[in-house]
Design a protein that fits this description.
It is built from 3 helices and 12 strands, in the order αβββββββββαβββα. It has helices at 2-24, 129-134, 185-196, and strands at 30-37, 40-47, 76-79, 83-85, 88-90, 93-100, 107-112, 122-123, 126-127, 136-142, 145-159, 165-182. The chain has one domain (27-196). A hairpin with a 5-residue loop joins strand 11 and strand 12. The termini are far apart. By secondary structure, the protein is an alpha+beta fold.
């Protein structure tokens, strides 16, 4: 009985170990980033592809076409409270993130309020921009920053700055994109103060 139990436990251990090794070999591992800024929590959930010697922007990721801003499942950003981006309110909730790179000039970061993958908007191999536009909560124009050295893995992060306006950034290969998110900290404090009167 003891030998059978020991053998069963060893088999379970080997299966668990083999599964862990397979998960460790995922080409674009899952990544997660969360940051509290003021009264708001900002959370990114994405997969982090590698450069692997490839030409990324303009080749693997074509110019002028919205891209999922990561790999595997949809890249998402979640705000625990309503925030302002470019002076416009973006309600609390989870949004899928797309990026449209440009050969020259500004790039566009899109926040999709439905949480859909970019592939949900593809018809005959092309993104249906009219259908996509109907589901967007925000379009953010950003000037790409060219980095002197390539970053192998795609990375999203949030810098809390002054705890009122956060800087949200993505870097991959030699490109970094950054945009500001107003956490409405003063407005939330004023509303809370008024509620106590």
């Amino acid at each position: 009985m003891k030998k059978t139990l020991l053998l069963a436990l060893c088999c379970i251990g080997l299966v668990s170990l083999s599964q862990a090794q397979v998960v460790g070999l995922v080409p674009s591992p899952a990544a997660y980033s969360t940051q509290n800024v003021g009264f708001t929590t900002v959370t990114f959930d994405y997969s982090s592809p590698g450069v692997k010697g490839r030409t990324i922007f303009g080749d693997l990721v074509p110019y002028g076409t919205p891209w999922r801003a990561g790999a595997n499942q949809a890249t998402t950003i979640e705000f625990s409270n309503t925030v302002k981006i470019g002076g416009e309110n973006v309600r609390a909730g989870k949004y899928s993130v797309y990026v449209t790179p440009a050969e020259s000039g500004d790039w566009t970061i899109h926040l999709n309020k439905t949480g859909k993958q970019i592939f949900a908007y593809m018809t005959d191999g092309k993104v249906d921009m009219d259908a996509l536009s109907k589901d967007l909560a925000a379009n953010i124009s950003v000037t790409p920053i060219m980095m002197p050295e390539s970053m192998e893995r795609l990375f999203w992060w949030v810098d809390p700055n002054d705890n009122k306006t956060a800087k949200v950034s993505m870097a991959w290969d030699k490109v970094m994109l950054t945009f500001d998110v107003d956490m409405r900290t003063s407005e939330i404090m004023e509303n809370f103060s008024n509620a106590l009167k």
